[in-house]
Amino acid sequence: MSKPLKQIHLAAHFPGVNNTTVWSDPAAGSHIEFSSFAHFARTAERARFDFLFLAEGLRLREQGGEIYDLDVVGRPDTFTVLAALAAVTERIGLTGTINSTFNEPYEVARQFASLDHLSGGRAAWNVVTSWDAFTGENFRRGGFLAQDDRYSRAEQFLRTSWELFDSWQDHEIVADTESGRFLRDPRAGEFHHRDQHFDIAGRFNVPRSPQGRPVVFQAGDSEEGREFAAATADAIFSRHSTLDAGRAFYTDVKDRLARHHRTRDELLILPAATFVLGDTDAEARDRAHDVRRAQVSGQTAIKYLEQLWNRDLSGYDPDGPLPDIDPDPGEHTVALGRASVRMFRDPLATAKEWRQKAEAGGLSIRELVIETTGRQTFVGSPSTVATTINDFVQADASDGFILVPHVTPGGLDEFADTVVPLLQERGVFRHDYEGSTLRDHLGLDRPAARNSTRNNDSTKKAAS
């Protein structure tokens, strides 16, 4: 007996800052005007996607001591954008990336609880960490945290936020129609939390929201990141987009859930995915070739190579050979901000591998960067792309995909109009939303309020 078909989850990543954006396309629009966000969100909702995803950047990138001018100049605040989108959409989930290293639990919990109320239960939080002092200079605490410490803080940050979300019971606000007042439990919102990272106590001033807590996403791929996700997250924003790598990652993370007393359907795995469509597969391949060359200009190729070489390579010809000098493996990095985390664990070994690849293929710097920075995940006619997406999900390489188009804001339109109907015809994607909250879309249960102050003995003891 064959197993039932899995339902595919689809989401859309607003392509504000990433190496997929094609700025030169005549259809490219603003990455900061609200009309772009609204168009993108409405397209995703029209296609019945689960959610919209916003990345976050806490400081403008720099390279060689100057602002990275191939990036968008300016990043609007995530909560402000999502709150505005809540007013112009009805069902699409609203996911924001918020940092756990430089923020505080009370502040973030209050913002997410408010967004969940304003949107009718559509809020989600992509929990990320940051280690570099360059970003930390923007904040009062500044500095940086070692990897073990930042994941420890992230986990305690998240669990502290849960205590705040759960400090109200669902029944604690009851309207008294005769007096026109609200009756509530006098202990509503009360919390006490103390650990090595946080020592806070008081009352949380936002009642329990429609989802109880926002859906939690996690994007780390390290050993610590995978374990953190298995213990706490509802979904993982994964970078594994090939079938074999996706299946290996899927199996690894799902197998971790049991030791955290969770079932395999309590955590969704959603890789990022790019796409290029055409009337035929051949046309799509030709378009994909053109898109890749537009994504990696000569200037972009040199900037990217500098991140591996850790040197100023502005004097090199992007259409010429790789530098004959070795990378500088020192701790100082020429790139700061979004690219300030070392992208290459062993720069010398990577450079050697790249040289061999370039010599074997007769590749210039630009051609090599195009070859090594990945290609579109899905390329083909709408039928081919629909088939491939379904094959990945049914083979347990993912539970769906977070799509990143290369044009803002209209890059999702063609996928919504051509690929989504084919998935619906196959019976693997919804024709309409069946619930009103993001947890409904993702098939996740609404968590019960654990109300830490009243029910969690360990928290009481720690705070006493």
Automatic annotation (TrEMBL):
Gene3D superfamilies: Luciferase-like domain. It is an enzyme of class 1 (oxidoreductase). SUPFAM superfamilies: Bacterial luciferase-like. The keyword Oxidoreductase applies. Keywords: Flavoprotein, FMN, Monooxygenase, Oxidoreductase. The keyword Transcription does not apply. Residues 25-395 form the Luciferase-like domain. Its EC number is 1.14.-.-. GO terms for molecular function: monooxygenase activity. Residues 440-464 are annotated as: Disordered. InterPro entries: Diverse_substr_monoxygenases, Luciferase-like_dom, Luciferase-like_sf, NTA_MOA. Belongs to the NtaA/SnaA/DszA monooxygenase family. This is NtaA/DmoA family FMN-dependent monooxygenase. It comes from Streptomyces fildesensis.
